[in-house]
Amino acid sequence: MLTNQRFINVLIPIISVILGLLAGAIIMLSFGYNPIEGYGALYEGAFGNSYFTGETIVKVAPLILSGIAVAFAFRTGLFNIGVEGQVFVGWLASVWVGISFEAPMIIHLPLAILSAGVAGALWGFVPGFLKAKFGVHEVIVSIMMNYIALHTCNALIRNVLTDRLDSTEPVADSASLSSQLFYEWTGSRLHWGAVVALALAFVMWFILEKTTKGYELRSVGFNQNASNYAGMNVNRNIVYSFLISGSFAGIAGAMQGLGTYGNMFVQSSFTNIGFDGIAVALLGGNTALGSVFGAFLFGTLKNGAGSMPLVANIPKELVDIIVALIIFFVASGYIIRWALTRVKREGK
Amino acid sequence: MDYVIEMLNIRKEFPGIVANDNINLQVEKGEIHALLGENGAGKSTLMNVLFGLYQPEKGEIRVNGKPVKITNPNIANDLGIGMVHQHFMLVDTFSVTENIILGSEPKKSGTVDIKKAEAEVQEISERYGLKVDPTAKIKDISVGMQQRVEILKTLYRGADILILDEPTAVLTPQEIHELIDIMRTLIKEGKSIILITHKLKEIMEVCDRCTVIRKGQGIGTVDVKETSTTELASLMVGREVSFRTEKTPAHPKEEILKISDLRVKDARGAEMVKGLHLDVKAGEIVGIAGVDGNGQSELIEAIAGLRKVESGSILLNKETITHFTPRKVTESGVAHIPQDRHKFGLVLDFPIGENMVLQNYYQKPYSSMGILNYKEIYKQANKLIEEYDVRTPSEHTPARALSGGNQQKAIIGREVDRSPDLLIAAQPTRGLDVGAIEFIHKKLIEERDKGKAVLLLSFELEEILNVSDRIAIMFDGQIVANVKPEDTTEQELGLLMAGSQVEKKAGES
């Protein structure tokens, strides 16, 4: 059985999750909490009823997009740590378009989403351009761009979009992703964003694997010298990569602005959607499908963990440790692969 | 006779292939024993078995007559076996000493006793004539020196049997001479050496005996004194190999490439090509001979559009390609087999199939409207794999997994298949075995016979003399002489490459 490579590939994530859960259980036991109750609360909080399931999906949708944004850049050899800031500007742009006018939904909604993508792309353009033109490291620039985004968005909300208020008015119905139907079914904020996110995950896969541009981007990611030798414009591809990655991130912001919250409000710190996107991308091996699964795991844990302090009385700090342990074990799947091959070798 | 190493009837299988079958290797104490075979014949597998990285399915290993089980490299180390890998395993920013002691640091009250280690390294270095500075940083010393650090590392760990995996592949001729001296000193001091190589000349020069492997099979062991390069080559390849490349006289026609007064700077801004003139005609192979570092690489890169031209002109078919981008140069009809196949020639993490369309993926039929057509890409890849005998498990295998010779055959297939007017081949046979070299030379000559212009850059005089129809000698950024291979000798070329013609010319005029 163990010789079957495909079997191993399925087995590893399952074992990883089980080990992570076991480690979390040990932590809970050693602090005197009942792990069955704890995990029961986690499950209930994530999928216990239609409301929780809906809220879980609400958490997953932007993570898919921030995940594929990071993964796309990684595949082309770039580290876009600026997804966080691109989410902010995307969020703001979508809300701005959403509240400024009314139009038929078939125009207004796509326009609002598109403007989020364009805003994210512009924010991504800056580190991409500086890297291509002057060789400035993209990580430094995009971290700074995150702060610029956070404070610029806050200033614009206070001074331009509102008169000294902390949040904008809700977006027009014609630009909203939210759904009366979903609300009636689940009572949650579940909106159409998950569909958009899945569609864009498909787009990311398609661009990378099926188009000539994706071929170039992957080639530049692996070997800039050979790409240059083959006639590809390496610097232009760096900029393209940041534009595309940034637009995915911007649309992650639209999920919040047009779906989950329906407006934008002043924020004291980062949303972490962008930073979690890095973990999502790495968990998913920088592939589209992997990012979808990674986002699903992250979103589930985040949402479900919220119930653990309430239902099982486990302190929030301990919950964070347990969630971190589960993610840690999933991320270190290679240790399990190593152990499995070792067992296989000795079993011979 | 006492053997320090005996590997008897070794068999090692990988899924789908038998890498080693029934191989015997017996190394006597104090000899340099060559392990000869083509790229991918199974030499490295056999050595990895000896070094404990692989476990054989069958066979026995004896060290100093005692049967042993080597299940990991630490056991190999304890048995006195040390390996110098082809690709060095050194930390660039560490000093020589720090690299050598890494993993077995001498300690003094909890800290590393670097002074003691340096003294020890100095002592070993002097005893074996390695002349390594123990305090130098790895990134500041030459490739040849780095290799000596690797040798020192094994000696520091008490190795008596050294495995050197193609040690000369990365060295200059001068460094090769020095390495050979070092090997002789090691033998004098009672060490034994296994030399993995496919360079016949080196075997003839330094080795005592030679074990030949062909396609995973042990062919036998011969005494070097009683053999010849021809015999070794045919043992290795399994058929007669001609060292003299067969070709008819060239019939040069119209001018394809014309370079006038070209000036090119290198990355540091030093002028490397200094007003160079060169032309290549259809139906001829022009070989550029010269000592490395006289501007050859910059010249080739300038033609290919990879390096900025400061002044002068490059004409292809009478039209300028002087300041063209690499893509426009390619589209104008130039193909380029680059000097460094890993850095430039291939995207190693791409499947070999995708590498086959690296320059024309954007053209029909490989894509249309920006969408790749994988069916056509892999059809083309399979065609080239077949035609150029690229040995790969499948077209989906990453290029990284192929042996050097097969990677090079893939590049040559890709470049030649575009049917360019000008084919630039920069060191096309570096690191390859005689079988592959013969194949590549034949392909270059075939292109010439089809009426293409071929520009060959090589640091191997033998290759230049065998393949070229005309030799352009490059010295200090200029072509200082043009000679016919049949009218010259290696000695004369050597003198010209050292710049002696310049004075002679100056005296004449």
Describe the secondary structure blueprint for this structure.
The complex is a heterodimer of chains A (348) and B (509).
Chain A: H1 5-30, H2 35-47, H3 50-75, H4 83-100, H5 105-134, H6 138-161, H7 180-186, H8 193-210, H9 212-222, H10 224-229, H11 234-260, H12 273-283, H13 288-305, H14 307-312, H15 316-331, H16 333-347
Helix pairs in contact in A: 1-2, 1-15, 1-16, 2-3, 2-13, 3-8, 3-11, 3-12, 3-13, 4-5, 4-6, 4-11, 4-12, 5-6, 5-11, 8-9, 8-11, 8-13, 9-11, 12-13, 13-15
Chain B: E1 3-14, E2 17-28, E3 32-36, H1 43-50, E4 58-63, E5 66-68, H2 73-78, E6 81-84, H3 96-101, E7 107-108, E8 111-112, H4 114-127, H5 143-156, E9 161-165, H6 173-188, E10 192-197, H7 200-206, E11 209-214, E12 217-223, H8 229-237, E13 255-265, E14 271-281, E15 285-289, H9 296-303, E16 309-316, E17 319-320, H10 326-332, E18 334-337, H11 341-345, H12 352-355, E19 367-368, E20 371-372, H13 374-387, H14 404-417, E21 422-426, H15 434-449, E22 453-457, H16 461-467, E23 470-475, E24 478-483, H17 490-497, H18 500-508
Parallel strand pairs in B: 3-10, 3-11, 6-9, 9-10, 15-22, 15-23, 18-21, 21-22
Antiparallel strand pairs in B: 1-2, 1-4, 4-5, 7-8, 11-12, 13-14, 13-16, 16-17, 19-20, 23-24
Helix pairs in contact in B: 14-15
